[in-house]
Amino acid sequence: MEIKYLTRQLDIIPVDKLEMPVTIIGCGAIGSFAGLALAKMGVTKIRVYDMDTVSEENMNNQFFRISDIGTNKAVALASLIKDFTGVVVDAHPYRFEQVAGLTGIVITAVDTMSARKDIYTTIREMSPGVQYIIDPRMSAEFYAQYTCTPKTSWYKNTLYSDSEAVAQRCTAKSTIYTATLAAGLISKTVKNIITGEPHPYNIQWDIKLSENSMEMFTKGGKDEAR
After folding, report:
1. Which of 1, 19, 184, 221 is 20 to 30 Å from the Cα of 214, by its Cα?
2. Which residues contact 7 (CB under 8 A, 6 or more apart)?
3. What's the rounded Cα separation, in Å, for the pair 204 and 143?
4. Is residue 122 a contact partner of residue 95, using CB atoms and an 8 Å limit?
5. pLDDT in tens, 94-143
6. pTM of the predicted model, to two decimals?
7. CA–CA distances in Å: residue 158 to residues 135, 152, 202
8. Please, what is the angle between helix 176-194 and helix 29-41, to 10°?
């Protein structure tokens, strides 16, 4: 794969490491900017899911054009990413259901805990080729991110009910800067995974107070599956 616009990052991310597929479920604030960032980074095998359409209130914090209002988010995002990077995205304009055969990395940029539970169950039962799940969660100026393998046991403890999740700051409300900060952290996590570097498995970031708690895997260290 030769992409001229990647020249200035070759010493950071070797081109041959960019072949891993990435699926983004949810194309809202976090998902739309993560899709753009990953394509800009050189990831070319991107699949996106979203059943919603772009609305006027999405203009402040999501990667869409005014002209996209009324268009399905997955379709609109695929069009934008192609225009900005040339990457052809596999767009699925419907809700993620019992989809089998996913591989690589799955990013669960969804609005509800019930959706996260459904995705996690589907991956474990129907997509043995998935290597990592990246679960970003945003509420106003607080960001949390969990990264694990489908066999990781501790991740189940983060899947609260939707009623409990509100208290845990697990909603979709955000501003443009929180969405782009999240996209940067997701892309950096993907980079760490594909290059075999230690990656964060638990990020708790109070963006308003600039307080960030991050726990990292270290090579030969913490067991992801426990």
Report:
1. 19
2. none
3. 6
4. no
5. 989 878 899 999 999 999 999 999 999 999 999 999 999 999 999 889 99
6. 0.90
7. 10, 11, 11
8. 40
């010493």: which residue's tokens? 11
Long-range contacts of 186-189, Cβ-Cβ distance < 8 Å, separation of 24 or more:
186/30, 186/34, 186/37, 186/38, 186/107, 186/134, 186/136, 186/145, 187/34, 187/37, 187/38, 187/41, 189/134, 189/145, 189/147
Q: Average pLDDT of 193-220?
A: 83
Q: 176-205, pLDDT tens digit by residue?
A: 999 999 999 999 999 999 999 999 999 999
